[in-house]
Amino acid sequence: MLRVATHWDDVVASLGFDRLRRHDLRHTGLTWMADAGVPLHHLRKIAGHGSLTTTQRYLHPDHESITAAGHLLSTHLNVGPDRARLRVV
């Protein structure tokens, strides 16, 4: 068993993360790649998922990322003379 062979329980206990599972690292890695700008369809391939919906379930944006997205929208909407390019769809 991989868990025994890698001494997983001992490693995570020594780090103070007794409840950490290897699968959690998959969620973390995919979230970090998404935060870095890796497109969702690439993340789907990397994870080996059959659908984008499954990949989206793995992503856990933090408060800072969500706030940054709001700032991007605010900046986009408050562009001086270019505001004419904004349209309701």
From TrEMBL:
InterPro entries: DNA_brk_join_enz (IPR011010), Integrase-like_cat_sf (IPR013762), Integrase_catalytic (IPR002104)
Stretches assigned to the Tyr recombinase domain: 1-71
Keyword Zinc carried by entry: no
Keywords (A to Z) from UniProt: DNA recombination
Pfam families cross-referenced by the UniProt entry: Phage_integrase (PF00589)
PROSITE patterns assigned: TYR_RECOMBINASE
Protein name as annotated: Tyrosine-type recombinase/integrase
Provenance organism: Pseudonocardia charpentierae
